[in-house]
Specification:
globular; 6 helices; mainly alpha; Leucine-rich Repeat Variant
Length: about 120
């Protein structure tokens, strides 16, 4: 397989996996399935530092925000490493429109996590 093809597959895979997790989080919130929401936070905690595609990172931040926005208990369980990553992203100098969206989302998450 050509390296460019492999990178494209990785790009699509990251976006697909994060999108699936976001959809699951929305369904779990509707069902008030706290155990699955907690498990989703654990998955996001492991995924976020490893995402290399900007669009996947943006969707993961949106998933995290969706997960913790109405749950003080989940908000408290956000791992320090993830908090540090979000702070770093909120302070970054965006180089593109997508980077800017990641930066804006991270800024909003900082407010939610610190509240």
């Amino acid at each position: 397989m050509h390296p460019t093809t492999f990178r494209f597959i990785c790009f699509l895979s990251q976006i697909a996996l994060v999108s699936l997790l976001l959809n699951c989080i929305i369904a779990y919130r509707k069902r008030k399935d706290d155990a699955s929401l907690t498990h989703s936070l654990e998955i996001l905690t492991k995924m976020l530092p490893n995402l290399i595609e900007t669009e996947a990172l943006l969707r993961a931040l949106i998933a995290l925000g969706t997960l913790i926005c109405d749950s003080p208990s989940l908000r408290k369980n956000v791992h320090n490493g993830v908090k540090d990553l979000i702070l770093k992203l909120s302070e970054s100098n965006p180089g593109s429109e997508t980077d800017s969206r990641v930066n804006q989302c991270a800024l909003k998450l900082v407010d939610v996590i610190l509240s």
